[in-house]
Amino acid sequence: MAVRASLSEDQAADLLLYLSAASRAGKYTGGGGAMCIALIGGMDRLERCYVMEAERVGISLKVFNGQGARLTSRMGNVDAMVIFTNKVSHRAKREAIGVAKSRNIPVYLRHSCGVCTLRRCLDCIKPKGVNG
User: Fold this and answer.
1) What is the residue extent of each domain of the chain?
2) Cβ distance 73 to 96 under 8 Å?
3) According to the model, what pLDDT value does residue 42 have?
4) Thinking of the domain 33-125, which architecture would CATH place it in?
5) pTM for this one?
C-alpha cells in the first residue's frame, strides 16, 4: 500500500538537506563520485541554499559556518575550498588556508557571502561538461 503525503516547502527543503548530509556522510548515495567542495563561512540561514546551488551543478558541498574547533579533522578530503572572509574568524581562515596549503587544495577567497557569489565560484570550479 502506497502512502502519499504532502510536504510543505520547508519540510521538503529539510528533507533535501537531510539527504545531502546523509550523502556526504556516506549513508545515502544518489549517484557517482561528485566533486567535493568545502565552504568555510557564510550565513546559517543560507546553508540550505548553498547546498542546493552546489547540487544543481553536480558538486557535493560541506559547509562549515559555526564556531566549531578542529576544522582540519572535520574537513575530510575536499577538492577545493571557498572561504567567505566577511563571515569567518581570522583564526578559522588561517587554519583553513594552512590545511589547503598542506594538502595542495585550491582556495577561493571571497568577501561577500551570498548565493550568487558561491554560484560564481562553483562555475569556476565545476568539472568540464557539467551543465547547471
Assistant:
1) 33-125
2) no
3) 87
4) 3-Layer(aba) Sandwich (3.40)
5) 0.69
Residues 14-43 have pLDDT tens digits of 444 444 444 444 443 344 567 899 999 888
- Strand-pairing partners, residue 103, are none
Which pLDDT value is given to residue 89? 85
What DSSP line would sit under the chain, residue for residue? --------HHHHHHHHHHHHHHHHTTS---SS--EEEEEES--GGGHHHHHHHHHHTTEEEEEE-S--S-HHHHH-S-SEEEEEGGGS-HHHHHHHHHHHHHHT--EEEES---HHHHHHHHHHHSPTT---
The three three-digit cell numbers of residue 106, written as one number = 585550491
Rounded Cα gap, residues 16 and 28, in angstroms: 12
